[in-house]
Backbone:
């Protein structure tokens, strides 16, 4: 008989319980014990309410029924992020989970749109994105089966109560054999090799492990405080370092988008849930004081049941997410502000990769390196996209002026140079985001390419405009016939919604 190996997860926030649930589902209980330790005294970050469509895949992998999930976590649907005041102070565009227009004769839609006169002649680029249009109209429908047009070609995500999601996954994990200990880790014992041997708890227990997963939040109790992985600080590119969060009342027929409204030194979010609205302000403390931030947040939301909760962060990532026999997942592995709702996606990506590379023995140097490379790529791609939001602006405030003058990472510099020259963004083979997302941001925030594809230079611009106007009014008709967002939520709560498979509706803006 072989002895069972011990997987120890430190941390009971969203990252910890997402990890525990996936491990319980995919790692055979005959050979592994899984234990999660978390201290109620320490608590969790507990924000993390806006998601991207990949969360549907995660739930599907776990076998979670989507209607049940929506009821349990107070979720609403999400089709887009609405960016107000990004670019210019009065700009307003939506990054929808879908395509804008169609690829015609192998040439992307935006080349036709720009050739026909762009925003000046045809209105916003996102007028051609069904998910963005439906979000603006506070409507929701599932992507339809095989219509072969925009009605099939979009995805959706959720606004969730992150604490309820963690609680739901806790029940899921415990029912599948995960052991839970409510205690604080006070010390860590290491082997001479540097590997972690066991955790000493404040209840006197010593917990031996073979693999440790650090989901202990910003502090990185194992990956940093014990193993000293080191941190790549990206604040020179993304200088926001503070946030405040506060809840307000639920909204009737809430928007099916996350709101991100830029202010003089950062941005403010609004995330509608069934039972409340999550609000927050993200800012650079060098440019805006905590008092000014609270004032702005409360001014925008009116009455709030609670005083804003203060959070601090350092944007960046651990130099190595997997070091020795410890893998960091969640905030212990890094932090990128939630401007594109990517944190839970990064948790999910790390979990799925760890399970794919799961080490059969203690010899796992290859898996470790491949995992770290994968995580680095995921973080860097999100980072570049976030920097682009700040850099591409024409706002007058000192913070924004400074942001438009920063020195870009080489990877982003090269990407933007290609778009400026030719209107083209390369597709990544791994990581967020797809070219349509980059194009949406570029056009939404006023970056025009110098040229469009020469392959359509022979087509008369008036003829293209006529066709695009027809397409836009067709999209408007389709959106007008969708149910209101509130109706869609009510149907789901009654358990009557027939949702599509996650793999089928994973289109558009945020593909892996
Ligand atoms: C302002 C803000 C807004 C955000 N918005 C979004 C969003 O819209 N969308 C999104 O996807 N993400 C968002 N995030 C990120 C998201 O909140 C986190 O990714 C997510 O909550 C996961 O956190 P975590 O589980 O890694 O850490 P935490 O929630 O901090 O959990 C840490 C856990 O470790 C335990 N712990 C720590 N030390 C010890 C110890 N010594 N002994 C025992 N237990 C210990 C704690 O008890 C706790 O259970 C946001 C984050 C911030 C800061």
Residues:
């Amino acid at each position: 008989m072989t002895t069972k190996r011990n997987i120890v997860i430190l941390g009971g926030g969203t990252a910890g319980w997402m990890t525990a649930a996936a491990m319980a589902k995919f790692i055979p209980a005959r050979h592994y014990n899984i234990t999660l330790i978390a201290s109620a005294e320490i608590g969790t970050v507990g924000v993390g309410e806006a998601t991207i469509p990949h969360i549907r895949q995660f739930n599907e992998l776990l076998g979670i029924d989507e209607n049940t999930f929506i009821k349990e976590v107070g979720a609403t649907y999400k089709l887009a992020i609405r960016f107000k005041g990004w670019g210019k102070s009065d700009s307003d565009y939506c990054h929808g989970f879908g395509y804008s227009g169609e690829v015609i004769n192998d040439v992307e839609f935006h080349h036709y749109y720009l050739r026909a006169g762009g925003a000046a002649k045809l209105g916003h680029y996102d007028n051609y994105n069904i998910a963005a249009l439906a979000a603006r109209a506070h409507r929701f429908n599932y992507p339809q089966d095989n219509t072969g047009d925009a009605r099939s070609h979009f995805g959706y995500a959720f606004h969730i109560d992150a604490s309820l999601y963690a609680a739901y996954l806790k029940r899921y994990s415990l029912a599948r054999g995960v052991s839970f200990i409510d205690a604080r880790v006070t010390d860590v014992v290491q082997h001479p090799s540097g590997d972690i041997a066991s955790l000493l708890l404040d209840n006197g227990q010593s917990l031996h492990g073979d693999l440790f997963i650090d989901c202990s939040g910003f502090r990185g109790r194992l990956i940093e405080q014990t193993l000293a992985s080191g941190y790549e600080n990206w604040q020179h590119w993304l200088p926001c370092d503070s946030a405040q969060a506060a809840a307000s009342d639920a909204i009737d027929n809430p928007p099916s988008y996350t709101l991100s409204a830029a202010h003089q030194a950062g941005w403010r979010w609004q995330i509608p849930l069934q039972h409340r609205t999550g609000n927050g302000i993200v800012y650079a403390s060098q440019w805006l004081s905590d008092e000014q931030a609270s004032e702005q947040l409360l001014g925008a939301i009116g009455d709030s049941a609670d005083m804003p909760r203060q959070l601090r962060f350092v944007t960046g990532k651990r130099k190595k997410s997997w070091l020795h026999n410890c893998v960091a997942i969640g905030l212990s592995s890094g932090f990128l502000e939630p401007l594109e709702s990517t944190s839970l996606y990064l948790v999910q990506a790390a979990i799925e990769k760890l399970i794919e590379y799961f080490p059969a023995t203690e010899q796992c140097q290859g898996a470790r390196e491949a995992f770290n490379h994968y995580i680095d790529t995921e973080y860097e791609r999100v980072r570049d996209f976030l920097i682009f939001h700040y850099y591409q602006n024409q706002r007058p405030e000192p913070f924004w002026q400074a942001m438009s003058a920063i020195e870009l990472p080489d990877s982003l510099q090269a990407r933007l140079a290609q778009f400026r020259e030719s209107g083209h963004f390369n597709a990544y083979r791994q990581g967020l985001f797809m070219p349509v997302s980059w194009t949406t941001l570029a056009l939404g925030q006023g970056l025009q390419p110098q040229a469009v594809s020469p392959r359509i230079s022979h087509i008369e611009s008036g003829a293209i405009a006529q066709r695009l106007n027809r397409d836009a009014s067709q999209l408007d008709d389709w959106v007008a016939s969708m149910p209101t967002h509130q109706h869609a939520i009510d149907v789901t709560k009654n358990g009557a919604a027939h949702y599509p498979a996650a793999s089928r509706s994973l289109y558009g803006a945020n593909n892996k």
Remarks:
- The first strand starts at residue 5 and ends at 10.
- Residues 10-16, 37-39, 42-45, 47-51, 162, 184-185, 215-217, 219, 221, 243, 245, 280, 311, 313, 330-332, 338, 341, 343-344, 347 surround flavin-adenine dinucleotide (CB under 6 Å).
